[in-house]
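Give me structure tokens for this 219-residue protein.
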Amino acid sequence: MLGLKRGKVKLSLYNPKWAEFFEKEKKMLQKSLRKMIIDIQHVGSTAVSGISAKPIIDIAVAVPELSRKEPEKYIKPLKKVGYEYRGEDRPREHLFVKGGEEKRICYLHMVKFDSKAWKNYLLFRDYLRTHKKIAAEYAKLKLELAKKFSGNRKLYTAGKDKFIQKVLKKLKNNQNLGRNWRQNKARKLGVLERQVNANFSKTLRSGMQSERRLFITDF
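Here you go.
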């Protein structure tokens, strides 16, 4: 069900047991790290139903802060549950692995909570979960890359990253459009509200002046 030799690229059909394995791993990590972390999420292709993936579980762990020295306090508790520290995999992202060179079973990506990396992991995963057509395109691309770069994980990953960055860019552009639309709508509503308030105040003043004239006449 799980496990792949380091550096090798071989895809397996989606297995619902991957999600079950993650839940067990999550509970163990929560127990080990306790209040040191903020959140743990299942990310990557094994977190998306129906997509073929390398049989290695990707886990994103969000922590309050993450400087270059920060991971040191996590190394010992994670080592006790089978995770080995591999250093800064990407800028401001630290990698821990579980399983030996011949059978890697988990990648733990430690990132700062609410950072760009954390948001991207969840944004891409959630988009694939809700957009089956894009998920199918991604699955097809991965199969093609796996055949072409079966012995070169770096080139396989680089090919995937182009697709991932394209999707993320589209999503962020849509978010910006949505944000601008909401801001413009709020501005228009604000202008309308001020106009309504001004008209109401004008009508109110006019009514008060009319009542005053009537009062004087009646007197």
